[in-house]
Design brief:
Blueprint: H1 43-60, E1 72-75, H2 78-84, H3 93-103, E2 111-113, H4 120-123, H5 129-137, H6 145-150, H7 164-183, E3 189-192, H8 213-221, E4 228-232, H9 239-244, E5 251-258, E6 282-287, H10 293-311, E7 315-319, H11 337-348, E8 354-357, H12 364-381, H13 424-439
Helix pairs in contact: 3-12, 7-8, 10-11, 10-13, 11-12
């Protein structure tokens, strides 16, 4: 595994998260010119802005020519939305998410930044050039069954997917754009909802992932930051990211996932913890079918807080797959949108730059609902205590995709009751084992 590293060269209906009494630290709002919501400044403030921009250019090179009005950047363009809809498994999912965020007027609190497509050189910073070249030249007239097998373009990553290269360059470019916004101090949180393709390997597609935008964006972050914490809450193990950083101590990879016989991708055992310089810098939290909100958030908060305290990261990357939601066709858990949103809020409260990416999620209406909760929590976390918080109605506002949320047209979802194979003892034992492992890792 390490040879491929890029560094080798209760009752759920009544449960409330407040019961856990976990401290959520409000981020320090850095009131820089780029965060200002006003377009009118006096001559003195303009001069200060120019001086500040010059200092940033002197220290870190050129700054992206974008003035962020808010602490949260949302990577989006109509071209990006249309390109993401090419992916057969997630056709029109991004459109559902975006229009629901728009219907709830949450976009008013975000700075929208269009992505810059990644070029071949950028894609090859992690992926093999032969793989990228094959994707670039891929068409119905150049299909090779042998090459398709070699590059993983079969089964869950079908070779018949036309527009592959446009798709991978846009998705990777969007995550790199978001990472660069953080590196240039243009925002506190940068979001690429269609990123998070954590299964792709250096030379192979896997698990609906044709490009590993996560690895590429982390490599960009490492040009500015010394220590990156990667957290993965997709129900499927983040095997591609783990493999890429398995032998380095610059990136701590932490994955919470389902682990059961026959469950994709079949990796992520608790005793795999990195190798060489990366020994102890990889942590897997394998969970069983049917875990509930209360159980999940308890172990997530305990382990994540401990890793953050021990590793002391400069920046965090969070893969927010939503296939752990109850009722997801490829999932086996009982999580609700509120649980996922609270996990994101906990990480955002660490008061370090956060790159937030999407991932799995194969019930698009449920995924869209979840991102409303996620963005609402992030917006409110970045609103000062003396300012009015954002409230959202459980009645989904009228908009072009309203009929997709019938028959009740509610934001909330009923709690699912998939058979729970986790016991209190198994979860306690796992938590104790992992906490001790973290304690015994010198950092």
């Amino acid at each position: 595994m390490g040879s491929l590293s890029v560094f080798d060269v209760g009752d759920e209906d009544e449960f409330s998260f407040d019961e856990l009494k976990l401290p959520i630290k409000r981020p320090t709002l850095k009131r820089k010119a780029s965060f200002s919501s006003s377009d009118e400044n006096d001559d003195n403030s303009q001069q200060e802005d120019e001086d500040d921009e010059q200092e940033q250019e002197d220290e870190k090179g050129s700054v992206l020519p974008i003035q962020s009005k808010h602490n949260i950047v949302y990577v989006f363009s109509e071209e990006y939305l249309n390109t993401c809809s090419l992916l057969p498994i997630h056709k029109n999912r991004f459109s559902l998410i975006h229009t629901l965020l728009e219907a709830y007027q949450l976009l008013d609190y975000l700075t929208i930044v269009p992505p810059e497509p990644a070029n071949e050189r950028q894609l090859s910073e992690f992926h093999n050039k032969s793989y990228i070249k094959y994707l670039r030249n891929h068409s119905s007239t150049t299909i090779s069954q042998v090459a398709n097998q070699e590059f993983g373009l079969e089964d869950d990553c079908p070779e018949t997917f036309q527009g592959i290269y446009s798709y991978v360059s846009m998705v990777a470019g969007a995550s790199i754009t978001a990472a660069d916004m953080l590196s240039n101090d243009e925002c506190k949180i940068a979001v690429n909802i269609e990123g998070g393709r954590h299964h792709a390997k250096k030379d192979q597609a896997s698990g609906y992932c044709y490009i590993n935008d996560i690895v590429l964006s982390i490599l960009h972050l490492l040009e500015r930051f010394s220590r990156v914490l990667y957290i993965d809450i997709d129900i499927h193990h983040g095997d591609g990211v783990e493999e890429a950083f398995y032998t380095t101590n610059k990136v701590f990879t932490l994955s919470f996932h389902n682990y059961a016989p026959g469950f994709f991708p079949g990796s992520g055992k608790k005793d795999l913890c990195g190798s060489a310089k990366g020994l102890g810098y990889n942590l897997n939290v394998p969970l069983n079918d049917g875990i509930t909100d209360k159980e999940y958030f308890k172990i997530f908060s305990s382990i994540t807080n401990k890793v953050k305290e021990k590793f002391q990261p400069d920046v965090c990357v969070l893969q927010c797959g939503t296939d752990g939601l109850g009722g997801d066709p490829l999932g086996t858990w009982n999580l609700t949108p509120q649980c996922i949103a609270n996990c994101v809020e906990l990480v955002a409260s660490f008061d370090i730059p956060l790159l937030l990416l999407g991932g799995g999620g194969y019930a698009p209406e449920k995924t869209a609902r979840t991102w409303v909760h996620v963005m609402k929590n992030l917006v409110n976390l970045n609103i000062a205590d003396d300012e009015k918080k954002v409230l959202i109605s459980d009645d989904i506002p009228d908009h072009g995709n309203l009929m997709r949320y019938g028959p009740d047209f509610r934001l909330s979802l009923p709690v699912c009751h998939y058979p729970n194979k986790n016991t209190q003892k198994s979860l306690d034992d796992l938590e104790t084992y992992l906490l001790e492992k973290i304690d015994h890792t010198p950092m």
